[in-house]
Amino acid sequence: MLSKKTKYGLKALTYIARSQGDKPVQVAVIAKSEQIPQKFLEGILLTLRKSGILGSKKGKHGGYYLRNEPSEIKMTDVMRVLEGPIAMVPCVSLNYYEKCDDCPDENLCSVHKLMIQVRDNTLQVFRNTTLADLSNTN
Amino acid sequence: MLSKKTKYGLKALTYIARSQGDKPVQVAVIAKSEQIPQKFLEGILLTLRKSGILGSKKGKHGGYYLRNEPSEIKMTDVMRVLEGPIAMVPCVSLNYYEKCDDCPDENLCSVHKLMIQVRDNTLQVFRNTTLADLSNTN
DNA sequence: TGTAATCCCTACTAAATTGATAGGGTTAAT
DNA sequence: ATTAACCCTATCAATTTAGTAGGGATTACA
User: Fold this and answer.
1) Which residues of B touch A113 (CB under 8 A)?
2) Of B44, B66, B88, which residue constitutes the final position of a domain?
């Protein structure tokens, strides 16, 4: 299941990408337009800023803006920040690898083999999709 | 994240597929061999039996057996029984479709479009993989 | 016929995660 | 100075997960 955090985060990024002028976009505006609890969204955008995907401007007339062109913002990065590891088991995670407690030899593990395939296919989607793809109104 | 339930279930199915004689396999044997808490595994195999993937024989010398050839048991079915919907959001689920509360028009939703792609890619893996693929010791 | 082995079923529980809310601190424009 | 905005921490209720407990029903076989 995709968490609300990720879903809201993706919607917010899309919103910001679509309203790209040189002015930052305020949390309140996004929250209202996308029907997201404002305080919850604040935390999400904060995470995205700390990860380097968003920049922010404080104080009056402040808000959030993209640090790169939408076409440069890959879903792999966004998903890892919002949802965590892309792999369904730690033992096939590229960025967060961890050995399983059970499983003496993961090369012989049937689950391992299957999950590598799932990971690769999902990764392929995320690598080939950018925020520009999400925000194009097709 | 893949749940322990699913992981254990897949391992157990693999184990049963590998020991396919005409004799049913006991929960205790699988639990010991695969390092799975026995009582927990009992519940999992029960679920698989109720879904029609496994059959069972009660009483002494009882146990579980596959209802079909491993090559006939598709991962789509197994995963749906163990893990639930394959889609990451209900609004792109083929078998458990549900509209989102937010999201006035899902055809315009950027998340929707992305998640359809993920679903299709994952589905492709599960459709092309059977228990036979998991249990082949390659 | 009795006993042991085995699946079957329900209920319970502790820990973790998720989705939020609360309350205020800090910064910047006017 | 005041106001509008981001920033940060703590807290909380609901849900899910992983597992345990306890026993019921069924079957093989001595």
Assistant:
1) 133-134
2) B66
Give the domain extent around A62.
Answer: 4-66
The total domain count for chain B is 2
Residues B60 and B80 both lie in one domain: no
Nucleotides, chain D, CB distance < 7 Å: 3-10, 17-22, 25-29
Judge if B97 and B128 occupy the same domain.
Answer: yes
pTM of the predicted model as reported, rounded to 2 decimal places: 0.94
Structure tokens at A3: 């968490």
Residue A95 is classified by DSSP as S
pLDDT tens digits, B47-89: 999 999 999 999 999 999 999 999 999 999 999 999 999 999 9
CATH number at A22 reads: 1.10.10.10
- Among A89, A117, A134, whose Cβ lies nearest the Cβ of B2? A89
Which residue, of A13, A36, A66, is where some domain finishes? Answer: A66
Give the sign of the dihedral formed by CA A126, CA A128, CA A129, CA A130. Answer: positive
Q: How many helices (H) and strands (E) does chain A have?
A: 6, 2
CA distance B107 to chain A (A): 9
Which one, of B76, B81, B77, lies nearest residue B120 by Cα?
A: B76
Residues A81 and A56 in one domain: no
